[in-house]
Amino acid sequence: MASTAGQQSMGSHAPKLAELTDKVLFDDVWQRPGLSQRDRSVITVSALIAMNRVEQLPFHLQRARDNGVTRDEIAELITHLAFYSGWPTAASAINVFKQLEETSCP
Question: Signal peptide location in the record (predicted)?
Answer without folding.
Answer: none
